[in-house]
Structures
1.
Amino acid sequence: MARILALVVFLFHCIHPNQGQQYVKSETSNQTPTEFIGQSTIAAFDKVQYHVAVFRGIPFAKPLSGDQRFSKPQTLELKNETYDALNFKNICFQKPDDADKCRTGFTQSEDCLYLNIYVPLKVNNNADNSNANITLSNNKTENLAVYIYIHGGAYFEGNGNCYDMGIFSGFGNIIVVTINYRLGAFGFLSTDDDVIPGNLGLWDQHEAIKWVSEHISAFGGDPGRITVGGQSAGSYSSILQALYPGNGGLFQRVIAQSGTPAAKNSVSRVAYNTSLHVAKLLGCDVDGPNQSSKIKQCLLGVNASRLAEVSPHVLAPSTLPFEPSLGGAFIANDPSLIFSSNSNPDAIPAHFSNKDILIGVDAQDGEVAYRLWVLLFNISAATAFTTPMPKERFRELVYDYLSDNLNEDINKYKRIIDAVVERYTDWGDADNLTVVSNKAVEMLTDVFFVLPVRDTAIGHAHNKTTSRRRRDVVSAAGKTYVYKFVIPKSLSSRNTIWWVEGTEHASEIPYTMGNVGNNSDGVKLSKAFMTYWSNFIKTGNPNSNPDKTPATFAEWNQFTVADQKYLYLTNDPAMRANFGAETRHLWQDVVPSLKQLLVNQDSLVKPSPITCRSNRGSHSAISVFFLLSLLSLAVV
């Protein structure tokens, strides 16, 4: 994940003040008595200079210290004072990585709950920026829509400081807020009780959202037009924030780029065991009664840098070492079950359905799942990322997705693994390992991104056509927009894994931020992204801003249950239908049928023993016939 952040965010590419720096003052009021001092900067895009005020390092919660390490964030009451918001503040603790300049450019601390605000300024773009110091009350002609961006990083790395939102703010004429939240053990350990309550990183995000809702008007923002969004883990988080009823009317829209908790095992059911494992790795004596308290007391005494470096094993298939945990106030129900195709649409809460959602995938998002898999299962990264994967590893990937626990006997899945691998085989070039490897990435993209995004969109859109029992939802149903991003060949560059062909995870980030240099194709694509995104943030409709001439781009139609339309987002965007239909049929119809078929045949056909790293072996002709007959339905 650090490599992706370094590549697409341009390594601490933050906008800088001009030679003649001007200070910008926020408004004050009874609700926001503090006067925040930021600075005017210039953000350039496509030969246009946008004047933007940047307020850095604003605390949104009380500082965490000492025995508050595993406590929920506490609301910070603003004082009648002036606050210097000229410099970025600390980032949250994470494992050191000297190659990640964005990480090494800031001090890591448990006192890290800070946000940054980008505000477009109404000044003459041809001026020399020699205007006097600006007060935002004199700057605004209207209250601006607001975008709260949650960074990704698999819940264990990243920070909001490194996302330069100056161009996006100026181009879109919106306010953009980036935030920090606790990561790894600090943000996602839990003892499944009140001792370490869990989901602290999500509670941090919620506190930031609440702060913005209460105080963004002091920066010219409209608290009635707030969008929460993010990429990867930030995308997962955005959906979780939308599902959490405690956010109520704090925001109205969601942008989810490459990730949704509708994915299998997206929340942990083994949080206590993870905390116990971390405590033992750090030498804690937690035997005997009151184990939760012993875990907490020991971990409170561990040096923060040491706690940030701990790397627990994965305790369940298709999971991360640290991730949101099921249970408690924040995640009362498993999101993957809420959005399951077999679930009752009425189970999706109204406060989620009523929000507008823009959600989508990158065409080869699954490469990040492979990179994380290599990292977590201690496979040589030097080999895995420089040479195409062998066929045996493809089979292991399928097994790890299908299995219910890490110690499960692979023999029971052998024939299903065979069938899935055959479905994802290019039979015109079946022995080319580069082709095989990219088909494996396609499979990972389908199961971890395409299918969950489709299920989320279906669940969100379903209530627009639901029964009369939910007229309250129908009358205020949010709009649903879905996309698939495919980077054009003219903009293709070497991916993190050289043999991955196409649009890898996080490829869209520089385009959404306008950080694309002067390449004409890149500028065109970035304009499309920033136009659609900013229009949606303002109105809930990506086509609605006449100032940016959306007629030069395809009209983005809403996703509905009937046609499942999505925007094929590239340099010449176009609408397509039936998002992920083939993927859904394979994984939600065919694979369960195969499982049931094997259960029925178990007394007649016994599988031959195999190991996890074996090649596809032989199986009975009658089994192959039934398996492939069912599997062929997946390509209809």
2.
Amino acid sequence: MQSSASDALVALHRGVLATLQRRMPPEQSSEPLFELIRALTTALSRGDISLQLHDGAEVPEGIETDGWPLLHREALVASGWLDGDQAVLVLNHNTLSWRRWQAAMQELELELLRRCFQAPIHATNQDAAISHPSKNNDLSAEQQAAVRAIDRYGVVLLSGGPGTGKTSTVQHMLLRAYEKQPKLRARLAAPTGKAARRLQDAIRSNPITAALPCTTVHRLLEARPGGFGRHRRNPLELDLLIVDEMSMVDLELGRALLSALPTHCQLILVGDSAQLPPIGAGAVWQHLQEPDQNKRFKDGAITLTEVYRNRGALAQMSAVLRDQGLKPFWSQLSSLPKTSNITVHYSQTRQIPEAVHAALTQHLDHLKDKASALGINAHGQPDQQQAQELLNILDTSMVLCPRRRGPWGVNAVHQHLLNSSEPQRWPSGLPVLCSENQPELGLANGDLGVMVGEGVQQRALFLCSDPSGDSRHALYHPARLRSLEPALALTIHKAQGCEMDKVMLLWPTLDDRQSSALLYTAITRAKQQVLLFADPAALALGRCTTILAS
């Protein structure tokens, strides 16, 4: 299974190298030069569009010859591949990039900066404290700075980890904007349907913001085969847009979003740069959060650091992982008391741990009982309250895996618990994942649902969104869904944007350079508890630190 991904990467590398040699035959060929292209191609397969060549830079995957990075840099300069207008690569100081994506990222960055320093449509000359201080006295200085920024900047970057109050800050920012301009045309969006609905639920506590439409970025841009219906010639009719979970936005989507916004539209971008970068090329949020880039936005860039949500050891260990790395994380994890809300259990990776099997069986039984009690009217529509109660169970527990294939992968979990991969034979109560955008049904890639009924009565229950952002529960025959997967377990990538009460994380030991971001993203999906299952072989080798994502 694993060799197929490796073979595809080798084929990609060979194709890129052959194209470069054909278009621009190198003046001098060498193994270090070919290794550098292999490393660039491998990085691009993970969404990274550049490599660092400065002294002391980490040796990237694909480099085997000694002398990194000086020897490889010399080989690159001698090749002539950096010369002329047709050059595919560009070396800017110590950063080697693909010219195409580097130019696109620079274009996006410059457009954001241009928008940042234009006055918002609701701006006034009042630069005083936030109005209604009695309603905002629970805000930290960082949060108040973010609320003030909405009066001055056309683009606001709001960064912070879990529990730092990003969502409550966003709500106060919205209230501030509506106070200045009651007829403001505002919308909220996120890369996945689950993240969009979670954001919408969080702002419903205030009547002013409760009715704000919230949808996926793709639906907002009216995604269609070959592009988007909203663009520079057909822009969105908005004065303010808030986009959450920006760490999941790649360069192509970021550019499409900016192209569709009218020139006066204020943009508030929210995210956590320690999470996994997007699968597509170009990690926009991670780029904007680099110190040299972030400071260009002046006070329009705010980072929230104070943690408000009581997450116990989860908060402590996610901070260790983010700030110190993998080795300190594993070292300190083993010294936590057994009563901590993050615990590690060592188990062989060839078998699904018995504790995971038992928890999933109980979870599935609970869902099946609720699914059998779901009321359905004569028109085939579910009782809305009962349907929501059923879907809420999905947020109580989830198994996460760094990869899809191999031991402890998502497929292994489903093979262990399901008798068939055919949807028509799946049991009632089974969690399912819509893995393709189907706007005509109100579904987005990443939406979670539940199977209801069996045989001819079998349907899939989902919470769907219409173009305005309003939601409703609907039952669909599996044949209407182009891509439906079981979801007793999810890859960490697929779980991005979700939050669950308890996460059971299966963590084998294969090499990958995104291990820290993978592990951080996984444990920050949990609101209350993480049960981490790790291979004891990794502990014996002293490197319980690596994993291959796919």
3.
Amino acid sequence: MIFRFRRVYHTIVLCTAIWFMCSVLILIYDGLSFYISADHVEVMKENHVNDLRRRTWSANYEDLPKSHNRNGLGEYGVPVNLNSTFSEAIRAGYKKHEINIVVSDMISLHRKIPELRSKACRWKKYPLHLPKTSVIICFHNEAWSTLLRTVHSVINRSPPHLLKEIILVDDASTRDEVKDKLDEYVKTLATPVKIIRLQKREGLIRARLTGAAAAKAEVLTFLDAHCECTIGWLEPLLTRIAENKSNVVMPVIDAIGDKDFKYNSVSEPFQRGIFRWRLEFGWKPIPAYEMKRRKDETDGIRTPVMAGGLFSISKEYFEEMGTYDTGMDVWGGENLEISFRIWMCGGVIEMLPCSRVGHVFRPKFPYSFPARPGSNIDPVSKNLMRVADVWMDEYSKHFYNIRYDLNSKQHDDVSERVNLRKRLKCKSFKWYLDNVFKELSVPDSNFLFSGEVRNPQSGMCFDTLGKRDDHPLGLYQCHGQGGNQYFTLNSKGELKSEDNCLDFNGYDLYLRECDDLGQNQKWEYKDSKVHNIRRNVCLDRGDSNSEYVKAVACSGQESQVWMFGKSK
């Protein structure tokens, strides 16, 4: 009897243990499938009640059509190179769109992009409940395939419960393919896509404001019309805004080739957005103090200025902060204005390493910008003047020293923006430089000489030739407009163009980042000669065919005579 009881007892214990182990395994499997499955959003939709109990999840959503050919041209971001038989069509495409439209049209609208995130980003958890976003895409005569590839990448890689709508703002396009054909196409999409047609060209700034006003979601996400979003691009952006509505965030912007449409991922360490004193956007390595502030590689990178084409912002905060400066025309400078305003008025701008979006960088714009009737200044310059006069305080003089041609120009009244700055109780531009962009060198205003640097015999002047960083010092016919021909020689002996110093290391004569060492970058101007003290050489214009200034042994030749003077 006792023997039978023991057998029954052991059987019960064994069954209980097996049941317990199976339950644990099921729970582990369920948890892992929720956190790392690429289809976890589908699981969430099918088993909503259970998933609501979970508080975090991983950003791995991707939903490509089942019919999608993953072996097609351009898949996984590989380049597409065509033979010479396509040359004529490619040239015609560039004339129309400034991209290789032949290649773009061959690539699927749903092409797959390889996993680009770091391992830490792939395993990072995000809150289940995040605010929804309206994605706003403005375009003017955009190519069909690049526009639709942007739209589909948003749909395919955005969890449906986070994507409220896509708003396409057509800035008075004239081409048929983005009119009725586009209207019919978007009706077939599961995600709501709204098209707003502007009756006249308004430019990017006012087109975006139109889209923002129509948006219904809590978060506005602005994208250019030639982008490709990658897996996990949206959740990091929305999470930071959910944490604080004054966080304004942008993805890491990868480059898509305009010729072969290769997806070129930016490698770490990343760079962050900055500005130069001529109020031109650029990229610079992340300084040590910012790296030290971050706790791990997934943390946002605080950036003094954002590129402006791709970012997310709380709609409520966007409106509280004064949206865009509506006194600006078309495009240009709006990214600087909103960046200064966000930082100086209590907000934060971050680039998030776990969010990545590809962007086609075209060699030039395939369309012209509409000028305001009666204006004697181009829209970009006018916009930059507004930025300087409203936000830069006493530091605006450094902008006008470089853009000497604008000193005689006038822009529209900025009193409304000045009053906005007072109402928001914004900090000074000095605070911005001391706390946000600490490494920016403030130009020495006590110039020994400034203006153009002319060789009287030839009428040629120092010229940057439109290049910005680490490039030879060029020569060009003097034009008296400042800009690329505006140079300064300060009390430290630095011969500068904007933020760059003229450097001669014994071999190369280059404009490059100032090093404050007072050696290869130390010059003196005496007896109409520009002399490098350490190397004991003088600047020479060379022969009549020279495109660049040369550093040679000093002599009395007229090719080494230079006259400084304000541009007139």
